[in-house]
Every structure is written in structure tokens, then in C-alpha cells.
Amino acid sequence: MSNDIKDLKQPAKAGQKQLDSIHVFAPATVANVVCGFDVLGFAVNEPGDEVIMRVTDKPGITISKITGDDGRLPLNPAKNTVSVSVEHYLRSIDRLDIGLDIELHKKMPIGSGLGSSSASTVAGLFAIKTLLGDDTDPSTLLPFAMKGEEMACGHGHADNVAPALLGGFVLIRSYEPLDVVRLPHPAGLWCAIVFPDVDVPTREARQIIRKNIQMKDAVTQWGNIAGLVSGLFMQDIDLIGRSMKDVLVEPVRSMLIPDFYLMREMAMEMGAVSFGISGSGPSVFAFTRDEETAKRITQKLQQHLTNIKIGSNGYVSTINDAGPRVLG
Ligand code: HSE
């Protein structure tokens, strides 16, 4: 760690540059990556959420504006995941004396399976960290971001917040103690994402999955996780593709997604390397070897959803290695 956290316990000293406002973007993420329930995730370039944070005179946190949420998110700072995780962070560094106002601009659908709450929380935490000049490793923010996840869906999993915060492809090797490993990935991997506009809250999508699993299924699953991680290291896209199979969660959750298996067939026929549920759904994603194939798959799946009278959003991206960034 390059900075002693004690330094942050004091307001900026005279002559020390203290920012008084900041505008931050944090990316959407694809959690699970098919076979790695709760342990694998990666960040994408778009969509993502934005936070504008301003230092105010009065101690405490206010939320003055939320856009893009259709009025679904609370402005009450005690109930909003962004302000609650920022407050946890401020408490940890003994800086509850500070006054902050937050604007949250949602640029992706809520409950989409794209790590919507994680992107907002990470944007907020990255904003306050940067405002205070905290140059500790961004991974120190993970426990605070996980608090936000716990509040959003009842469980503090890290497979959205970790890639949103660190960028790239991330493995949560262990939760207790928290051990997060950044994985390499082939540069030419593209991702097609389609969000079918049906409601699948993560909290509920977690409740329907089986609590106990058969040894035979466990063997299949850990073989696939090891295969996927090996494929990432070896830059072997075929190995990545044949490893992205899930015998534990997908068979149950796919029932919540309209025409999931038909969309998979379409994507694979069009040259996808793999296809699966993004996070807890309803978004689905496919890896491809090039941008053109990713675009064609996105268009085809969206057209299919239109035909069955379901609205959708589509995104095409490479893996985002940068994570959150300051926009101004
Ligand atoms: N691993 C989590 C789940 C991700 O599948 O419930 C939620 O986006």
C-alpha cells in the first residue's frame, strides 16, 4: 500500500490540493461467466453508471438527484446503496465530519443482471476515494462495495463489484478471508450482451437455486471452471468456449428468461464461442472472436425479442481492463 490510511483521517492541509467535486463512471459487469457462480466476473466498456459528488459545508451525505431510474431508487441516503457504502468508507477512515452531495445517473437498466447496483456503488466509492486523495489500492474499497450488494439483494457477493472496481476479468478465490485475483484474457475476445426487458430481481433469482448439489454435478462444474481459467491464461478461445457450461444454476434460472435456449441456439449458430446468463439474468451474453459477429448476434437476438413482443437493450464490448474512470 502506497498510502497510510491515517493520512486520510485529517482534512487536507493548507496548500494541499483538495478537489471539491468529481464526476466518475463505473462499468457494468457480467458475473458468474456461466460456470463460476459467485466467483467469476468481468467488466465491459458499456453500459455503466455515473456519479457526480460534491463536497458541501454541512457534515453528512445528501442525494440531490437520481436520473435514469424511473423513480425506483431512494433519495434517502440511509436507504441508497451508494450513500450507505460511501458512509461505511468514511466511517472506516474516521471522516464522518465531511459533507457530500451525490448525483446518481443510471445509464443501465435496474435488475438487468449487468451489475447495475454495483456500478453505482463503485462509482460512488471511487469518487470519494479520489476526492480525498486516497491512493491506496482500489481493492481496499471492496468490503464497502460488498456492503452495498448486501443491501441491494440480501447477499454480499463480489463477482460484480470486484470487476467493476478493478476492471478486467476477476476471480473471487475466497470470501473468508477475501482473496481476489485478476485474471488475464485474450485481447480479441468480444462480448455481445442483450437485456430482455423482463423483471428478474437478483434477490429472487438467488432464492430459486438449489441449496444442495450432487457430487457428479460438482465434478462437472469445477472441471469447467478450471478449464475456463486455463483457457484465459492460455489464450485458448476454444477451451474457453467449451468450458463455459453450467449444470448447477443455469438449468433453474433459464426458466426466468424468455426463449433462453432458443437464443443460445441462434447465437451459437451465428458463431458465438459461448452463451449464457449474465449474473442473475435476465441479460444474456455471448463471447465472440470479433466485433462484427458480436454485433450480428446482438441484432438477431433483439429482433427475436421484438418478434415475441419483449423490449430489449443490446451492447457490444470488449473486456474493460480499466474499471472506473474520472470523467471530470
Ligand atoms: N453471482 C450473483 C448471482 C451475481 O448470480 O446471484 C448477481 O448479479
Automatic annotation (TrEMBL):
GO terms for cellular component: cytoplasm. It is found in: Cytoplasm. Its EC number is 2.7.1.39. Residues 235-305 form the GHMP kinase C-terminal domain. GO terms for biological process: threonine biosynthetic process. PANTHER family: HOMOSERINE KINASE, HOMOSERINE/4-DIPHOSPHOCYTIDYL-2-C-METHYL-D-ERYTHRITOL KINASE. This is Homoserine kinase. The lineage of its organism: Bacteria, Pseudomonadati, Bacteroidota, Sphingobacteriia, Sphingobacteriales.
